[in-house]
Design a protein that fits this description.
- The chain is an alpha+beta fold.
- It has one domain.
- 34% of the residues lie in helices and 18% in strands.
- Strand 5 and strand 6 form a beta hairpin.
Length: 163
Amino acid sequence: MKRKITNTSGFTLVEILVVIGIIAILAGIVLIAINPSRQFAQARNLQRQSNVNEILNAVGQRIADNKGVFRLAGDTVCSQNISTSTPMTIASSTSAEDAFDINACLVPTYLPSLPIDPDSNRAYFNTASDYESGYVIQKDATTTRITISAPYAELGEKITVTR
């Protein structure tokens, strides 16, 4: 007499669908927890914070090297004073009306290159005479302290450093 051999190993279609459903739910939870767009925005804000500090340190060093004055008498490169009334965009004079062109004042002596905002839709650097950094500079009229800000910060953050 021959025995009938039955193959009982393997998964049923329902078991496979249940496992796929559980994996999909877990993947959705992980993606929500990680939130890549938020992580990228935080990384860009950290870069903005670093750039603001870098620019402010370079301006401070330039002022220190010139005995407390950013604008030097007879210096055609840094002939502009930092505004005390409104924030000025750090940009070439050809790219914005309220531009404060400090590229020639700081590069290459104090900075290897002028930092620009990590969001390429708002900032660019084509040449030393055609750029917009995406940062603003202002000087307090009473204390003469200089403030650099990143107006395009994301996630509702306000990135401003004063020295």
